[in-house]
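Lecture notes, part 5. Sequence design as translation. It can be helpful to think of inverse folding as translation between two languages: the language of shapes and the language of residues. The source text, in structure tokens, appears below.
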């Protein structure tokens, strides 16, 4: 609603179907002026390919991001197999992986976790892409070195670093309804020092709805009400590498802004599926992350890597009485200030035994804190007459070890064990995780692989102590994942892979309809498979496609055939061609089908509904000039103006036209 420009953020910033490692071609790195931050990865392999060769790992490069014009994290990984991006009442994209919700996916920035201390989730729109060198996503089974929490997988964002004397970029973009996005960056390297600093600023008044959308009393305009978003970001990295044995790095990120949460478009008490519209806004948010990383090689065999970090987020969350967004006279209206803080330290010593393998230890120690204060209305026409104040904290600790071995050429083995402790204010819990994997190249171009993982996720501060839904007696979530498949290289620089998976989850935490509090669900099962293929039969062309099948069931609820908003089927395709004259057309297609949902809590009878299947076609045309230093581009998202939803009653953007320019030095 308020529009302002943060000059500092405007003056700073950096500037595919995304592919499983070993199985799908990755686009060539397009930004030759920067490199990947070398302290940005948690160690999950030694001199062999290690645990990642047995798992499902997808890689997204800076060139992939640039080709599709992805401006936020959710856009950058939306075409990955197993990924479902949905937007509901919270107004921010949620990234689900193989049916697991965002809170079950660990998000890392240069190896440091960014998940919220309150609910374990994250807002991917606050993570701009201009500073990203690479995204690595592990789906399903993952290394014990990541710690607890990643039942669905792990996303690690690796930022850029300077690689030459000096380089920079500035870009500007606008589109339908006159949003703006400006980005810039500066990077340099001199002797043992390097730095990279980037920033971006964007302001969107509201996204356009499809012409096929039928207007309602709540949504009676062509642009989604209360869908405005303002965001300003700054990121910087400083590296010091005095010799081949020592590397030190410092990373900071700062973001601030505001956004609206679009209300449900159906205001009908007789609709058994539609929730009552809410009029909520995040009037301001401010986040800061500081991290220090180091890597030291004591000998040719012994190495130590570590991180120390602090993350904090402050938010002003207001729930208004009506669509005027100026009063608090309705029962349960509120003004809240939410503050979360995370402190942590992690160490990873690794020893290389040569032909006898590599052993890596990990210790992770984290302290989480949540504070909530504000006012709420206890009844209609009693504005903000009741105070609400809460402050909670806990700590989580992990000790883990992982051993990898390659006894024969083409054969790799890995096994790991981790133990985790959660110390709450008046109680504690502990549990363990295990991973094991094997990969074998039965032929020169054919790899078989299998992995197993037992993982856990402790309840978050919000799960335990949330003001309305908290339950301090929750049990720890536990999962067992089995996956295996084959990866095949083909002629003409082509590849194909097939991965099948089965996951069983016990004590999954969900909100109970009857008590309106968090409860543990006895058992949930996910089964599915992913097929991915890619070809680059000439140097100028890149084609990629994937299909994901997912079946999810709640075993202790006979009425539900599958979890809500977990699509059975997803197909993606993308392609681009780089003409020698500098012209590049890019196209992507995404088909999502067979998503189901269930009646709301107050419905008289239980019933099941189905979202419409949808196809999204995006096109981008770009032209490079002056040795690729100047680029102009034009694009259309949702070119068919599809009217679709990812949650019932929450329509998504229709056709969106944009264009921009980029200058590199």
């Amino acid at each position: 609603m308020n529009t302002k420009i943060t000059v500092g953020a405007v003056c700073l910033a950096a500037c595919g179907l995304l592919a499983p490692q070993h199985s799908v071609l990755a686009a060539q790195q397009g930004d030759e002026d920067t490199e990947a931050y070398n302290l940005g990865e948690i160690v999950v392999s030694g001199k062999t390919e290690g645990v990642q060769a047995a798992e499902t790992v997808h890689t997204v490069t800076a060139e992939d991001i640039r080709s599709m014009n992805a401006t936020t994290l959710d856009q950058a990984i939306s075409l990955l197999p197993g990924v479902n991006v949905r937007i509901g009442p919270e107004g921010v994209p949620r990234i689900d992986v193989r049916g697991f919700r965002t809170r079950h996916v660990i998000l890392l920035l240069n190896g440091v976790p960014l998940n919220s201390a309150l609910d374990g989730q994250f807002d991917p729109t606050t993570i701009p892409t201009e500073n990203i060198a690479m995204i690595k996503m592990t789906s399903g089974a993952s290394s014990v070195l990541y710690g607890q929490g990643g039942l669905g997988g792990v996303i690690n964002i690796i930022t850029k670093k300077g690689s030459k004397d000096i380089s920079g970029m500035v870009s500007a973009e606008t589109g339908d309804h006159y949003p703006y996005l400006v980005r810039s960056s500066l990077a340099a390297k001199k002797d043992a020092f390097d730095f990279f600093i980037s920033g971006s600023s964007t302001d969107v008044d509201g996204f356009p709805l499809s012409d096929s959308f039928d207007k309602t009393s709540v949504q009676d305009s062509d642009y989604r009400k209360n869908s405005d978003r303002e965001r300003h970001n700054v990121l910087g990295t400083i590296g010091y590498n005095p010799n081949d044995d020592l590397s030190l790095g410092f990373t900071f990120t700062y973001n601030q802004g505001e956004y609206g949460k679009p209300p449900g478009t159906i205001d009908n008490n007789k609709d058994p599926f539609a929730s009552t519209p809410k009029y909520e806004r995040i009037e301001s948010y401010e986040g800061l992350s500081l991290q220090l990383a180091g890597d030291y090689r004591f000998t040719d065999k012994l190495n130590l890597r570590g991180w120390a970090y602090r993350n904090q987020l402050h938010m002003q969350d207001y729930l208004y009485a009506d669509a005027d967004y100026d009063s608090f006279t309705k029962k349960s209206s509120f003004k809240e200030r939410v503050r979360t803080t995370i402190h942590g330290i992690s160490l990873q010593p690794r020893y290389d035994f040569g032909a006898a393998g590599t052993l890596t230890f990990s210790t992770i120690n984290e302290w989480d804190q949540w504070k909530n204060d504000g006012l709420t209305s206890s009844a209609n026409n009693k504005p903000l007459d009741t105070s609400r104040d809460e402050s909670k904290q806990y700590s989580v600790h992990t000790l883990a070890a992982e051993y990898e071995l390659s006894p024969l050429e083409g054969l790799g083995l890995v096994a790991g064990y981790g133990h985790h402790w959660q110390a709450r204010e008046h109680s504690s819990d502990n549990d363990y995780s295990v991973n094991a994997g094997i990969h074998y190249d039965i032929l020169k171009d054919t790899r078989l692989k299998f992995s197993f993982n037992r993982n856990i996720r402790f309840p978050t501060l919000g799960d335990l102590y949330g003001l309305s839904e908290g339950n301090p007696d929750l049990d720890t979530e536990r999962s067992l994942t089995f996956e295996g498949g084959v990866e095949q290289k083909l002629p003409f620089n082509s590849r194909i892979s097939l991965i099948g998976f089965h996951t069983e989850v016990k004590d999954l935490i969900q909100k109970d309809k009857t008590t309106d509090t968090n409860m543990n669900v006895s058992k949930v099962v996910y089964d599915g498979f992913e097929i991915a293929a890619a070809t680059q039969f000439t140097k100028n062309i890149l084609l990629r496609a994937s299909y994901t099948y997912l079946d999810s069931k709640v075993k202790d609820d006979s009425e539900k055939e599958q979890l809500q908003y977990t699509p059975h089927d997803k197909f993606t395709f993308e392609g681009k061609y780089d003409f020698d004259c500098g012209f590049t057309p890019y196209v992507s297609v995404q088909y999502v089908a067979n998503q189901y949902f269930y009646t709301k809590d107050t419905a008289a009878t239980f019933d099941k509904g189905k979202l419409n299947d949808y196809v999204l076609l995006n096109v981008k045309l770009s032209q490079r000039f002056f040795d690729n230093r100047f680029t102009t581009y034009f694009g259309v998202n949702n070119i068919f103006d599809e009217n679709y939803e990812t949650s019932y009653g929450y329509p998504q953007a229709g056709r969106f036209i944009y264009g921009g320019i980029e200058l590199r030095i």
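The translated text above is only one of many valid answers, since several sequences can fold into similar shapes. Confidence is low (pLDDT under 50) at residues 1-24, 26-30.
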